[in-house]
Amino acid sequence: MKDSKYIGISVNKLRKDAGMTLKELSEKTGLSQGFLSKFERGQTTIAVDSLLQITAALGTSIDQLLAQKGADESSQTVNIIHRSYENSVLYMENSFINYQITSGFVGMDVFPKLTVLLPTPAPQQNPLFSHTGQEFIYVLEGVLTLQIESHTYELYPGDTAHFESNTKHNWWNNTNRNTTILTIHTPNVFANGEAIDPALKNKNGDFFVD
Description:
By secondary structure, the chain is of the alpha+beta class.
């Protein structure tokens, strides 16, 4: 539930402002630390009686907590900060899984995403393509094979590539383990709030934006 997410954030802030640990809040409310942790991170809903226990332990009320929630929403902090547990799959295609790693990518000039390239059954090479813009690649895990025009590169964790997207290119995973990369594209194909159009995607999960 969306309200639970914002209320959980408010509880987290009030608890820390009071200098109270999760363990202390757990002891005061009788609620488990695991449940409280999930609630504060917006990963679970909460019953009204449990929320009353929390507000009593924090010396506040549900009305005051909701007022704090409204202030948190108006500050739009949830659109600035994106936690790792909020990552979701944008789309999957062939051996690529693309994850959303920011809450505010719609309307921004750049489009970052996390891509996991699954192992391929045998070494392969996909057709090269080009499109407008620029892209930046950072290898987090595994080995990425990157081809730009007639040049082929093997990139390892910590290696990066930054190039004009109108140069013919493609990348793939020729190993037997997952390869994980962070990519940043500009221009952002979602800048105008457009939905993901499968027709825009290439086989490596990139986008045509011409």
